[in-house]
Amino acid sequence: MSIKSIVNQLVKKHGTNDPFKIAKNMGILIVFEPLGNALGYYSKHFRVPIIHINQDADKTSQFFICGHELGHAIQHPDTNTSFLKKHTLFSTDKLEIEANTFAVELLLPDDLFLEQNNYSCFTIYDAIKEKGVPVELLSLKNVDGKKI
After folding, report:
1. Per residue in 83-129, pLDDT tens?
2. Which domains does the chain have, with CATH numbers?
3. Distance CA 90, CA 45 (A)
4. CA dihedral of 66, 71, 77, 80, whole degrees rounded to 10
5. What is the rounded CA–CA span in Å between residue 82 and residue 40?
6. CA 115 – CA 99 distance, rounded (Å)
7. Which of 20, 61, 87, 139 is close enough to 57 for a disulfide, judged by CB 3.0 to 4.6 Å?
8. Quick check: pTM over 0.70?
9. Helices in the chain by DSSP H: which ranges?
10. Any coiled-coil ranges, and where (predicted)?
11. Contact at 8 Å (CB) between 100 and 140?
12. 88 in helix, strand or coil?
């Protein structure tokens, strides 16, 4: 099953694309803590899934971080992930690419791109800024089978 399909099923089931609400609904604990240079990571402790988010990251970035780590929780539930750092956002590691793709598909639904092409002054760049998605990850977005 594709990442986009997983995301679409999740959004439909939970009625939202907010990673914080989805995580809460799934019983995933979210912890805000000082992580220094790290943005966040996912772990499982005594069968309790936990998303760790750097409390010092800005709110918009925390949204993306949560989406990324939720991607790990759903796609790699039994793998404790390494720290997500600013310089590792663009990792070539398969698990990190999958988590980034999950976050991009979750936070930037297709209809956002289709609507913005019609009557709105809201641009793709407005969307990624609002959702905390790094512009460099926009290439992971797939709309109607095509990369942006």
Report:
1. 655 545 556 678 888 999 999 999 988 877 665 555 556 677 777 88
2. 3-141 (1.10.10.2910)
3. 27
4. -60
5. 9
6. 25
7. 61
8. yes
9. 3-14, 19-25, 59-75, 94-107, 110-116, 124-131
10. none
11. yes
12. helix
